[in-house]
Design a protein that fits this description.
The chain has five helices and 13 strands. It is an alpha+beta fold. It has one domain: Alpha-Beta Complex (tt1808, chain A), CATH 3.90.1570.
Length: 198
């Protein structure tokens, strides 16, 4: 969840490690983005539901799920904190950060992060070798992007409330969308007024 508070110098991971204030930051192409404000209760509820589903699924299977805050260093100028991720290569699990592309990254949209999650971070994950990227909308649907043999994400698979989504990277992982949003009041876009009403 990154707010576009930009700083023009090109920062590196070594710069990032010196920042001691309480603000959480991400680096994308060397630009620093402050992750404010704090996530909403809806965002936190969706994240907790997904974390539970992932931890239950991957228990004893060799891959490890993580949830934010955790640093993922994709390059010396790209350090992000995805909402959730799964790593199957134990060599990528460092003491202070995940070092390299996770197998699965999940971002939960919020008003301050949606544009970046859909553009800069989607491109970053694609270019960095993240095999699968899920975008979870507070409107009750999930988009799944899978990296093809050409190294590019194809058109997303889409699942809505009442449906289920099966991972392409992990074919034994099927998640019911209703479980992701269990106990969460969905955001709905404004409905148009009926014809004839002001």
């Amino acid at each position: 969840m990154a707010n576009p508070l930009r700083h023009t110098p090109r920062f590196s991971y070594s710069d990032y490690l010196t920042w001691t204030d309480e603000t959480r930051w991400e680096l994308i192409a060397g630009e620093a983005y402050a992750m404010v404000p704090a996530p909403t209760t809806r965002h936190q509820g969706v994240q907790q539901n997904l974390a539970g589903l992932l931890f239950n699924h991957f228990r004893g299977k060799g891959c490890r799920p993580f949830h934010s805050p955790i640093d993922v260093k994709l390059s010396d100028h790209d350090v992000v904190q995805p909402d959730l991720l799964v790593v199957c290569d134990p060599k990528k699990i460092g003491e202070a950060a995940i070092l390299g592309a996770p197998d699965l990254v999940i971002e939960i949209l919020s008003p301050t992060s949606e544009a970046r999650d859909r553009r800069e971070k989607r491109q970053l994950y694609e270019n960095s070798g993240v095999a699968e990227y899920w975008i979870v909308s507070p409107n009750g649907f999930v988009e799944l992007y899978r990296r093809g043999e050409d190294g590019r994400y194809g058109a997303p698979l889409l699942a809505r409330a009442g449906e289920a989504l099966t991972s392409l990277r992990f074919p034994d992982l099927t998640v019911a969308i209703n479980e992701i949003f269990e106990g969460i009041a969905l955001e709905r876009p404004p409905q148009p007024a009926p014809p004839g009403n002001p």
